[in-house]
Every structure is written in structure tokens, then in C-alpha cells.
Amino acid sequence: MSAAKCTRLTGSLAKQLLDSVDSVLFDCDGVIWRGEQAVPGAAEVIHLLKERGKTVVFVTNNSSKTRRMYADKMSKLGFEVREEEVFGTAYCSAVYLRTVCELRGKVYLIGSRAMEQELEAVGIQQTGVGPDHVAGKPADWASVPLDPEVRAVVVGFDEHFSYMKLNRALQYLSQKDCLFVGTNRDSRLPLEGGKAVPGTGCLLQAVETAAQRQAQTVGKPNHFMFDCVASQFSVDRDRCLMVGDRLDTDIMLGSNCGLKTLLTLTGVSTVAEAEAHQKSGCAERQGMVPDYYVESIADLLPALQG
Amino acid sequence: MAGAFKGCQKIRGPQIRSLMEAKDFFLFDCDGVIWHGEQAVPGAAKVVSALISRGKNVVFVTNNSTRPRENYVHKFSRLGFTDVMLEQIFSSSYCSALYLRDVAKVRGQVFVIGCDGLRRELQEAGIPCVGEEDDPAATIYNCALAPDVKAVLVGHDDKLTFLKLAKASCFLRDPECLFLATDNDPWHPLSGGRILPGSGSLIAALEVASGRKATVIGKPSRFMFECISSQFRGVDPAKCLMVGDRLETDMLFGFNCGLDTMLTLTGVSQVEEAEEYRNSELTTNHSFVPDYVVDSIADFLPAFEELDEQSN
User: Fold this and answer.
1) Does the pLDDT of residue A110 top 80, yes or no?
2) Quick check: B158 contacting A, CB < 8 Å?
3) Could you say which of A142, A202, A211 has the minimum Cβ distance to residue B165?
4) Which residues in chain B are contacts of A160 at CB distance < 8 A?
5) CB-based contacts of B302: which residues, under 8 Å, 6+ apart?
6) What does the pLDDT read at residue B190?
């Protein structure tokens, strides 16, 4: 049986935890940065983990950047990170389509240029990216010309989301052999300037409702992101720590894959929410209870510097 | 005991005649029942005329929120339904305006995601709307949010943009701001078996964004029946018949309002689907089951002829 959960990580316990793992997976938003600002101390934590020979990778549900774009952002914020260490859903969705779906054909994409690039990098062509407004009458929309090579509809974050895109996705998905993949179900992007920005989960739900079909999602908490990491780095689940700020994605992923989990409070979820899941008695919700929590990952510094 | 539940009774001639004698209020859905796009269902105009000339009340109850009621009057006329008046038409857009004005009594602006037809109904009811076209360069990060928004109303919107969804999400963060949907249909049928995304898909996006559930005005919610009851005298549910083509909207609407229901097979739902609901172990599925089934509302016509013969 596992030890008591939802424990505050302090002092020697932090040292014990870090000694017990060889790999650390970090979420990004709300963990190592918030918007365009690095979490104080985060860069140092990553540097010291690597210095101690730990494998450090980054796992994010955000689909709007390629691995290269993430690496660039991280460098600017003072993190020493290589492109290969970053796993975003744009990259992982492309890998999923190539290796798990073994997709032959094109993708109808509701998503970003970054997704287009990651698809291209694995040899998959897309159609649909960019602005797309209605023209003509409803009868025209229902008869919109479909690219016969499209074999999958893929939905990620798309600022150009429109009724026409929703319509095209619906028309493609009316074909039974058309695959349906979503990057993630996050309902909101991190708040910036007090405004709530709808996340990919909203766009995906719109398409799923119209098509009356469920998408296969690639991002956390689905174990695929971990599989992707494990296929490129040697990772022992028993000696691996997942660090995140969201109980329903990061911590759930950790639980799904048998990893140790650490919640940081610099992002979305709170200790109260974690304790509520713990007390609920509901088996499914136990997966959202982290083993440990810290105020910020900077709290790991004493254990790393000692 | 499962299997004892009735419903799905296919009726013709004499049974339809009895039904017509027993009922004095006929509620018809439009798409797939009396017309398909610009084509009237053969015999439908005659049926409506015959009912009206025999002193029956006839109203039309549609979830379609894209047209103002005047447009429906013109359409009825165009398609050969000669005696249909504005007062007989109940669309989800018209009823949304009534809800905002008379039930919610909204003071302030309404952020509308919907077509011009919906906005016109609101304007006619004296309700100020915001939410029309945005500057193409605007993003959620730099756009201004209208002040004093007291409700978000979502209907079919072919000019939907990400920015509209984002703005609506912002307004919905205020728990005092109402969240209304003209209807929840996930998709709408067009002729030839084609479909288009419905209001339900837009509502779903906002429900995920806001973590809130919309209040649905259209079928299967009772509200449109309450509008009808408040505008006609002496509406008795026991003497009403709801005729529609969609189990999950029309039949459930009839059930929710205590009306007898009739499924016509000229539209969305198939009789096999009705039978599956009827045979279901889950008693909630029985609410989708029509009392009666006809191939088309033209099946009413022989019953009128018999009634005429009888009275001669």
C-alpha cells in the first residue's frame, strides 16, 4: 500500500523523495513559468536536478508551440533545456497519429501553425489551418467540398475557430472511417489579465457534440504523453516523479502511469481541492490526490543544494 | 414490468379521426414535419387548412432561431399555407425574447451569439443586445468588454468566432449573469440527409468554458408551451397533440408538458429508434417514445374526408 497521501513536502522528506527518483517530469504553465514569467527559483531547480544526473523532461498539454518554440521560450526565461526534452501536445499528437494510428492520408486540422509544423515533421499533411469564414448559404456549407485524402480530424487550440471549421469537421466526421483525435481537454487557458480564455476542451466538445462522436485525446491525463517520453528516454516508473499544478491532468497522469506525484501551488489547483478528492471515497477521484505538495518548486532548492 | 409500456402506435383513418375529435389544440414542429427546406411536405398545407377550418387551434413550435417570425409568415405563404398568422408561430428566438423580457425581466444588456433573426426578435421585445461583428484585429487580450451585460444568449451562429466564445466566457464568470440557450440541438438536418452543426454544439463549448449549465428555452424544455398557454385561452394539455419528427426534442417536449405526442416519419427520427427507447430498461428513455406514429401528416387527410362524409 502506498504511504499517506497529500503530504506537505519539507526538509528531509524532500531529500528522500529526490533520492528515490532518477527522472522528473515537469508540467510548464503554473509550474516552471506563469505566462511569460519564470517561477522564481525554477531554473535553478532544473539545473541542479540535471547536475545530479536526473533525467528532466517537460510535459505540457499546450498545443500552440512546437518543441523548438518551447525550447526557445525556455532559453529566454533562463532554463537550460534541449528541444528533445520537451513534449507538447502538438508534437505528441503528430507522433500519435504516425505511430499509434498509423495514419495514411491527410488530417483536417483545427489547430495552430505549430501543429501543422509538427505534423509535417512526421510526414503528415494537413488542410484547414488558419482563418475560415462562412460564405454562401447553409445548403452550400453542408455540401462543402471534402478533400478525399483526409482520414482524420484533429482538434487543438485554435484562435481562428469558427462555425465553418466546426462544420467542416462535422462533414469529415460523418464518414465512419475518419479518425477523431483531440490534443487535450483543458477547459481554460491560464488566466491572463483577468480574462478567461476558453481552452481546447471547449472547441473539442463543440465538435464532439455536433458529430455525436468522442475524440481520442492525446494529452494528460492520457498515458500516451508518458509513453512518448519513455520511448525516447530510459525511464523507470518506480523511480519517476511527475510535478504539476493541475490535479485532473498532471497528477492524474502520474497516477495512471504509477509515478510518484508532486503538486505545486503556483498554478491552478489547491490543497483543499486535493483533500476533497481524498475524502470523497470515490475510487476515480483518488487518482487526483498527489503524494506530496509544495508551495512552489523553489521549495526543492534546500534539498538540492544541501 | 418491462414490455408492458405502450406507445409507438401506428395509426390511420378511423383512429386519426378519433384523435382529431378528441383534441382541440395541435402543435406542429416545422422542419421535417410540414416542410423540408423550401419544399412543403405533400398534403401538409391541406391538413393545416382543414384543421383550422374545423375550428381547431393550430400553432407551430420550432427550435429554429435563425429567422424572425415575420419571415416564417412569408415562408408559410410561399409554400401554400394560406391561413397562418404571426400569432401562431412560436420560435425559440421569439420565446427567448419573451423569457428575457417577462421572466428574467433583464435590466441591462444581453450578449448574443446568434443570427440577425435572433437579434431582431430581441430588439422587437425592447431588449438591448451586444455582440455583433468584431474588429478583425481584436483579440481577447486587447478587446473591450461591454459593460452591464446581464445575460448571455446563445443560438445558431454561422459567424461564430473564438473571440465571441472568449467574451461570453468572461461574462459568464459573473454568477449573476444569466446563461441562456435558444435550443440544445447538436445538429440540424438539411434536405438530402445532410446536417449542419447546431446550437447545442456552441452551448457545449461554453458549458465547458464556464463550468455552468445553460437554461434552454426551446424544446424539450417546457417554456415554449408556457408561452403558448399564456397567449391562447383555455389551453388544456389533455386536449393537445404535439406532432414532430425528432424524438429527443419534440416527443420529450410533449412528454414534459403532459401532451399526447405523434411522431411523423418524414424527418429526423426513425421508428426503430422509437422502438428502442420503448424497449429500454431505463424508464427515463420512455419519455422519448411517441404515443402515435404516422408516415406523414398527410395521413390526416383521409380522416377529414371521412369526417366530411359523416356530417353529410
Assistant:
1) yes
2) yes
3) A202
4) 162
5) B12, B13, B16
6) 86
